[in-house]
Structures are given as C-alpha cells and as structure tokens.
C-alpha cells in the first residue's frame, strides 16, 4: 500500500531530536540545507534515474553516463550552482564517471585538479610565465599507474627525454608493461592527462616527474599521432564501476613543449640543465594525499548507505517466534543481528567525524605549504594513508556484511547492496593498495619510536608516544562495566595498545643486522601496529567530537552510545592485542563485552532514527529493502516483473535449446 509508513512505530521510539542529528551528520546547518536541497533536486528529476543501470549492456551504460554527465553540466550552468552545490550534485547523482575527473580539472572539485594544484602551486612559485594547464573545453585524467607497476611509483617505465634542439620532451612507452593502465576517464573521453614519467636529460635518469599531455584532437576526438588509447575492459559487477572508462595509453615518441612539465620539485632549463629545487621531493606525492582525504570523507557516505538499508530492512523483516498467531520477531531484535549491525552504524558516525577532522588537518597543511613550511607533510601523509586504508577496508567489509544481514533479498540487485559493494570495493586498491599504505604508516611509527630519545618531541596524532614510559607500564585498574564508558579509560587503553605494539615491532626489528630486512620480515606485525595506531586516531577524534557543544535533545547521549559501541567493539574484536600487550586482564575484557551488550540495548529503540538522520532520499539509497516507508514486499514483487527476462512468458532460446531437450526426455520416458 502506497503512503503508509511501515516504520512509523520504530520512528516513535526515538529518544533524541532527529532533525538536530541531521545537522551533526551533515557538519553544519548550511551543509545540511545544501545537501537536502540538491539530493531532492536529483531524486525528483527523471533524467537521473538509476533504475535500469544494472541491466544495461556496457556500451549503453556508458552512453547513458555520458548523457547524465552532460545533463548535470547543463544544470550547473543553468541553475548557477556553486562549487559546493555542484559537488553535492555529483555525489547524489551517484554514478562514478569520467566527469569526476573533469570536475576536479575545471572547478577545483575534481580529481585531476586535486593532483595538479599543488604541483602548479610550486610551479608558479618557481617559474615565470603562464600555466599550461588546460582550463576550458578539455577533459583530464590522471595517468600514473602502468600495466607493470602501480604501487611502486618509483618503478614506472614511461620516459620523458629532453631534446634541447627543439626545446621539447619526447614521451615514450618503451615496453608493454610501461603502458598506462587504469586511469579513469582515459579510455574514451579525456583530451588531456597528467602523465607520470621518468625524466631523462643528457642520458641521465632523474626519476619520476609529472607532465601535462594532450591525448586527443579537440576537433574529431581521435588520438593524436603516436598515441594509442582504449578502454581496459569490463570490471566487477553489473553497472557498478563500468560507467567509468578506465583506460590504457601508449606513447610512441610523442613530442610536447618543455613547459608542459609540472616543475614542482625540479626544473629543466632551455639548455637541458636539470635543477633540483630546495623543496622535499615528496612534494610530488602530496597530491595523492588530497585524494586520500576525500576518500576518507566518502567512506562514511558509502557505509551509512549500506547500514541505512540493512537497519530499515532488519526492522521490517520478521522471522520465528510467533505466539498465538501473532507476528514473528523483527530480526533487528536478535542480539546476533545487533552485534553485527550496530558496530557498523557506529563506524559510519565515527568515519564521518574522523573525515571532518582529516579535512581540517589537510587544509592546515596546504596553508603551511603555501608558506613553504613542509614540517607537517609526513604526519598528514601517515594520517591520510592510514585512515584511507582503515576506512575503506571497514566500509567494503561493512557493505558486504550488510548484504548478509539482509538475507537472500540482499543478494538481489534491487536491494542496492551488490552494486554499492561493486562500486566501493576498488577503493581498497585505488589511490594506494591498503596494505602498502599501512606499511607507510608503519614506517612513520618506526621512525617516531627511533627518535624518541632525541629532542624531537612527538606531536599531533603521534603525541601519545611522548608518554611512552607511562603507557608501557600502566595497567587498567577498574573492574565495573560502566568504567568502560569513561573517555579517559578508553583512550588510555587504545594508546597503550598502539604504543606497545609499535615498540614491540621496533624491538624485534632491532634484532636484525639490517633494519630493512627486519622491516620486511616483520611486515605483517607492522601492519597490525599501524592499524592499532589508526584505530586510536578514529576513537580519539570521536571522543573529541563529544567534547564539543552539541545541541538538541538527546543528541549527545546517542553519540556517546555510538562512540562507546565503536570503541568497545574494536576492543572486543582485537581482544588479543589488548590482552597480549598486558594492558587488561581477561576478566576486564569480559566486563567490556558486558558493557557493549548494554550499549546495543540502549541503541536499539533509536536505530531507525539514527539512520534517518543521514537524510538519504530513496533515489540515493537505490534500494527496495531500504525504502523510507518500509514497504518492501509489494515493491520487491513489482520490481521482479520489470526484469527483461519477464518480458515474455516463453524465453528467447526456448525453441532452440529447451524444446528439443524436452522432446528428447519425452521420447526416453516413452521408451521406458
Ligand atoms: C558511494 C559510492 C562511491 C562514489 C564514487 C566517488 C568517489 C570519489 C572519490 C574518489 C575519487 C576517485 C576514485 C579513483 C581515484 C583513483 C586514482 C588512483 O588510483 S591514482 C594512482 C595512485 N597510486 C598510488 O597511490 C600508488 C601508491 N604508491 C605510493 O604512494 C608510493 O609509491 C609509495 C608511498 C608506496 C612509495 O614507496 P617508496 O618507493 O618506498 O617511496 P619513495 O622512496 O619514493 O618515497 C618515500 C618517502 O616519501 C614519503 N611519501 C610517500 N608518499 C607520500 C605522500 N603521498 N605524501 C608525502 N610523502 C610521501 C614517505 O613517507 C617517505 O618519506 P621518508 O622521509 O623518506 O621516510
Ligand atoms: C577502479 C580503479 C581506478 C583507478 N584509477 C586510477 C587512475 O585514475 N589513475 C591511476 O594512475 N591509477 C588508477 N588506478 C590504479 C591504482 O592506483 C593501482 O591499482 C593501485 O595503486 C594498486 O597498485 P597495483 O595495481 O600495482 O597493485 P600491486 O602493488 O600489484 O598489488 C598486488 C598485491 O601485492 C601487494 N603488495 C604490493 N607491494 C607490496 C609491498 N611493498 N609490501 C607488501 N605487499 C605488497 C598488495 O598488497 C596486493 O595484495 C585505479 C585502480 C582501480 C582499481
């Protein structure tokens, strides 16, 4: 039945002001209003329908994405949307596209610009003359990864050899493995790319640098001479990331003007002299930090979508326990369902707040860079790398868990979960493989531990290492479940665990003659230590959030419950670390679990309202199971009939393949 709110009773149970929570989730009243307006604009516009996306063949799917992108672009111009509104439009259209890269390029929002802006900043500061970066009527992509090398950026093979005779670079792909492979937007759309290649002057290899290269004609869109480009093929999942033209690119001695090198860390003069600037070489990598912090901010959006679907459906779905012909039990009331679902709900909120914090940290770093202060680059690199790894792994796993939480119906595309998973899961790989990134955090931690005796005091997220003596000795000395709710207790537990794991790794590495050999041998332990450090950051930023003034009846109390669940769930999951490092006893661990169960019970009546606070439209959720009104069964039934297979009662192929078999079977039966 249309118009009935099947979840109304659940909504009545809320013990907090949902509208105020919506503002906390959005980040501010202004951010809420923009999101609310733009999400409704998209939801009410049939031009942005997603209904048939998982059923379209690749070519049609891709063309449809091009149509949506052009339509979105027109709306931005016609409605005079601001950058903030345009970014929300991109988010709520909910279709990964080449346009993601283009928007970064032209409006400071898109991916490529994120990469280019720091490089260009340095370029502006070190070089006179205009900027070669295309700003109008062009589409860009970021071409770093090659067929043979992705993680190992230093191992890239594409060459950029300077020719002083013509004042040009010759760009070349010397081997098959040097083919650029994966860049989004490259395969069919981009006219330009930022290409990472080895700089060679006078026969000498100066390592990786970035170049802006035109790839396609602006007249007929054909690849320019010497350039081979194509799409790399269909990817995992129906619809999903197949809306993006991830591409392959090869150069055959392509010439570009000298000023198309992004001279951020070094320069090549007209006579071919290589000049290294007085800036850290890592500046070349800083743009990756920009995209990683965006990915952290996006993780909470993807996870909250899955959690919203699974929570609403868990309140609608009933199994077992009917008495005297009454209704069965809502599956959300099973403790096992709660212990799988509620930590994910808590994680969505935790990732939201750590994402906000990371954005502020990153803004601070970019301001420092403008003032040529590079001191905080290592910390922001460790934070973005580590949090990108933690949040994307937890989100990808969380989406899959939400699918399972929805039982069989979660496996239908109409649940929205398979496609959400297929779109999201590459986040564990792109912009840095998650293990490779945790190893970067581990390097930072080992460096910090080795410098503890020096005068360099650890600051920022690593400040806790400054009280190492205390953290190595302290013991958790309280016994009651409610003690686990004290922020200072939780914080010390996570600090002691992280510090002890790092120190143990450092001690084990020191047993090797060669520290690099030790690092390689202990890599698995180092990844665990890095994860413990990152979890500490997330927990501590949640606790910091709670110290702010949070208006609205019951809002702060709900966030306290969520924070407790996030921290105690991690403690339960990684009990081995906490027990192994000797900070808590097994009795204290069991008391913590008791407290965790109590928090689940406190959360239960608020569950539906806590997901309503995400303020997602049914269009954005794209899920029958997650519908706001809970009207699941009639809509599932209706949707089944829209499947192309149901267009006729007798399927194509019946006469060729089924009928002869049936006849054969009939004959055999007759012979018997
Ligand atoms: C809800 C549905 C979803 C909706 C979709 C929309 C989503 C929108 C958001 C997402 C947008 C787009 C998605 C797609 C984007 C994908 C783009 C890409 O994938 S681009 C390719 C990215 N590639 C990588 O990330 C490669 C990973 N590898 C590396 O980063 C490095 O090579 C390395 C760090 C592993 C280097 O290793 P190594 O060789 O040991 O390093 P070096 O010797 O070169 O340097 C070490 C030195 O540098 C410091 N360092 C390293 N990285 C950085 C950095 N990024 N910033 C600052 N400093 C860095 C490192 O700490 C070392 O410093 P020392 O002082 O020497 O210790
Ligand atoms: C959807 C998608 C979009 C992308 N978009 C772009 C783009 O726009 N532009 C671009 O340039 N690239 C892009 N990429 C490429 C992406 O950045 C790389 O795939 C990523 O950096 C991982 O590198 P790799 O593929 O070389 O993995 P590998 O490094 O080959 O990883 C394979 C395995 O080896 C392990 N491994 C590797 N090195 C180490 C180590 N040192 N220690 C321990 N284990 C290790 C990894 O953990 C992993 O398990 C995209 C990728 C995807 C999937």
From TrEMBL:
Source superkingdom: Eukaryota
Subcellular location(s) per record: Peroxisome
Cofactor: FAD
Domain Acyl-CoA oxidase C-terminal: 487-663
Annotated ranges, domain Acyl-CoA oxidase C-alpha1: 285-446
Annotated signal peptide: none
Domain Acyl-coenzyme A oxidase N-terminal: start-end pairs: 17-105
Record flagged with keyword Oxidoreductase: yes
Keyword Lipid metabolism carried by entry: yes
Keyword annotations of the record: FAD, Fatty acid metabolism, Flavoprotein, Lipid metabolism, Oxidoreductase, Peroxisome
SUPFAM superfamilies given in the database record: Acyl-CoA dehydrogenase C-terminal domain-like, Acyl-CoA dehydrogenase NM domain-like
Gene3D superfamilies in the record: Acyl-CoA dehydrogenase/oxidase, N-terminal domain, Butyryl-CoA Dehydrogenase, subunit A, domain 2, Butyryl-CoA Dehydrogenase, subunit A, domain 3
InterPro entries (UniProt xref): ACOX_C_alpha1 (IPR055060), Acyl-CoA_ox_N (IPR029320), Acyl-CoA_Oxase/DH_mid-dom (IPR006091), Acyl-CoA_Oxase/DH_mid-dom_sf (IPR046373), Acyl-CoA_oxidase (IPR012258), Acyl-CoA_oxidase_C (IPR002655), AcylCo_DH-like_C (IPR036250), AcylCoA_DH/ox_N_sf (IPR037069)
Domain Acyl-CoA oxidase/dehydrogenase middle: residue ranges: 141-243
Family of this protein: Belongs to the acyl-CoA oxidase family.
The protein's name: Acyl-coenzyme A oxidase
Species: Datura stramonium (Jimsonweed)
